[in-house]
Backbone:
């Protein structure tokens, strides 16, 4: 089974999100072949969750606050997302880290909050172009993993990791599949330090219908986290169909 997760970012308004989930549900994808989730905006999330209830699509939040409730203007907690039927939450997405200044410490608190409320955190990590040029890819990834997972108690919960090289996100410059496979193998080895269980690791960054098979055909790549190509019915359907055929 391979996973295809669609991060709709802030691409779609309320109506567009509902039209897209309803269109996807008409397609009747094969849940034995592909594990599906979408991450709508917070505004549309409740409605999308209701439409997707008991279907092949799980729903996740794009970001969570770690405190369950309180005086945190503009925030929505992991607990609140869990209460309305979310299964997953993206944590530490590159845009949260680089546009909104989220730190490794914030990421850690969000992971813990997700686990406390039965949400599966999809922990996003990745090196920047500067890291890459300075030969610091492994250093960056090791550090992000350590800060996220050292001494973390899963308590029966689960985590997913998404390797999203920052330079590949929204640029059309996808990481070449052989390199992605090597990085995933490295991440899986690193993750053994923190968890007994095998951790699902997704690749993200300029994935489209045309290149998705070159990633999911590789053993260490458990699936993909898709941005732009997940926000349209035609491109996302084509992409999921390609993965179903693997
Ligand atoms: P793109 O697929 O648009 O490059 O975005 C990747 C991403 O950020 C998914 O979380």
Residues:
């Amino acid at each position: 089974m391979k996973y295809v997760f669609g991060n709709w970012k802030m691409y779609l308004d309320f109506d567009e999100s509902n039209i897209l989930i309803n269109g996807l549900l008409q397609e009747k994808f094969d849940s034995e072949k592909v594990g599906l989730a979408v991450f709508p905006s917070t505004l549309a999330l409740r409605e999308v969750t209701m439409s997707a209830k008991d279907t092949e699509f799980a729903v996740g939040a794009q970001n969570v606050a770690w405190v369950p409730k309180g005086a945190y203007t503009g925030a929505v907690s992991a607990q609140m997302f869990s209460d309305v039927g979310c299964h997953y939450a993206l944590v530490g997405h590159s845009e949260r880290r680089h546009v909104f200044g989220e730190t490794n410490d914030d990421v850690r608190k969000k992971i813990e909050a997700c686990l406390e409320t039965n949400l599966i955190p999809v922990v996003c990590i990745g090196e920047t172009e500067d890291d890459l040029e300075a030969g610091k890819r492994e250093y960056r990834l090791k550090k992000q993993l350590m800060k996220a997972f050292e001494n973390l108690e899963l308590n029966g919960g689960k985590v997913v990791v998404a390797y999203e090289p920052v330079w590949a996100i929204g640029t059309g410059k996808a990481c070449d599949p052989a390199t992605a496979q090597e990085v995933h193998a490295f991440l899986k080895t690193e993750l053994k330090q923190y968890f007994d269980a095998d951790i699902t690791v997704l690749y993200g960054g300029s994935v489209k219908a045309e290149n998705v098979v070159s990633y999911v055909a590789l053993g260490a790549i458990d699936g993909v986290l898709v941005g732009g190509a997940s926000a349209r019915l035609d491109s996302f359907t084509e992409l999921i169909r390609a993965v179903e055929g693997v």
Summary: The first strand starts at residue 2 and ends at 7. The beta strands are 2-7, 34-39, 57-61, 88-91, 120-125, 160-163, 200-204, 223-226. The mean pLDDT is 97. Residues 97 and 103 are 6 Å apart (CA to CA).
